Amino acid sequence: MKQLASMAFVLPLLAGAACAAQLAPAQPGADESDAGDAADGAVAGADAAGGDAGVSGCHARPMEWSTPRALTELGPDTYVHPFVRADGTKLLIETGDAGSRSVWVATRDIEAGATTFGAAVPIQLPVRGAGPFLFPASARDNEYFVSRNREVWRELTFSGGNASSLVAAPSSDAGILTAPTISADGTVLIFLSRENGARLRQLEADTSGPFGAKREVFVINATLWDDYAFAVSPDALTLFFTGRNNEIYYVTRPSKDTAFGSGVAPTRVPSLEAAGFHTFVRSVTADGCEIYLSSNRDGLVSRAYVATRL
């Protein structure tokens, strides 16, 4: 994993990355079935973002998790960077060789009692070949955020095609923006910025306007944080990250207007770790009951895993 991750630091900025006009994060109106993604509807915005999403939830339980299980039901390919929709109905993953990545989606019918996802199918996004990693994230049907060419892009899919818009670009040729994550209501976008050191930057928008200026929301001692990837809860108030020695930590903030870890020390989560193997959290459901990771803990290549709250 770290060998692959290191490629993100050295890839040159691909020429001709257009600074497209920014699209408002409004609800897309297309049918996602063209991408093989026919599950019902989008997340119920504010309810899911608030963390209760109309379910009993697991937030009152200790931060203890089951042994992570490889998501072999997704198919034979090696899928990584699992980003779960806040309500747990859809899972985005990516696969392919570095520089030739593609985004896939798996669905499950929770209302019918399904506990596992079906086989993953590809989504036709105009990002294949852009890399080395895409880190797909989504809060709404037909709307996806990805890393490509060291920038963060928003992709909309329609029955007749798609539309792309540049969300954020580095301020220098040496900068890299990667690993976007989006809140359940689609209004808070957080990504990793490797500019003048590694930091997390946040963009905010209302439901009908463009994203505003980026601001820093997480600074931590570089000797502790392995700045490859991270996860933010659907309410955008809890951050998970991996330490330099493969430890897993989480840290909170009281509101979206404050930085993570303001007066609060990170807490370690040993139940998600695998000694000697690299693991990082990519996403968590709004009810706090499931957490999704990438790891090479089986001694093989990195793949997608899930763990449940005990």
Secondary-structure map with pairings?
Layout: H1 2-10, H2 45-49, E1 69-70, E2 80-84, E3 90-97, E4 100-107, E5 121-122, E6 137-140, E7 143-148, E8 151-158, E9 161-168, E10 176-182, E11 188-194, E12 198-204, E13 215-218, E14 225-232, E15 238-243, E16 248-252, E17 267-268, E18 279-284, E19 290-295, E20 303-308
Antiparallel strand pairs: 1-20, 2-3, 3-4, 4-5, 6-7, 7-8, 8-9, 10-11, 11-12, 12-13, 14-15, 15-16, 16-17, 18-19, 19-20
Number of helices: 2
Instruction: Let me know the CATH homologous superfamily.
Output: Glycosyl hydrolase domain, family 43
Number of strands: 20
Seen as an oligomer or otherwise, the chain set is single chain
Assign an overall shape.
Answer: globular
**What is the H-and-E element order?**
HHEEEEEEEEEEEEEEEEEEEE
> Helical residue percent?
under 10%
The biggest beta sheet is recorded as: 4 strands, antiparallel
Structural class: mainly beta
Question: What's the CATH topology label?
Answer: Tachylectin-2, Chain A
Total number of distinct structural domains: 1
Average of pLDDT:
79
Low-confidence stretches: 1-55
Biggest sheet: strand arrangement: 1-20-19-18
Q: What is the first-to-last residue Cα distance?
A: 28 Å
What is the C-alpha radius of gyration, as a whole number of Å?
18 Å
CATH architecture title: 5 Propeller
| Percent in strands | 35-45%
Give a brief rundown of this model.
This protein is mostly beta strands and 310 residues long. The protein has helices spanning 2-10, 45-49, and strands at residues 69-70, 80-84, 90-97, 100-107, 121-122, 137-140, 143-148, 151-158, 161-168, 176-182, 188-194, 198-204, 215-218, 225-232, 238-243, 248-252, 267-268, 279-284, 290-295, 303-308.
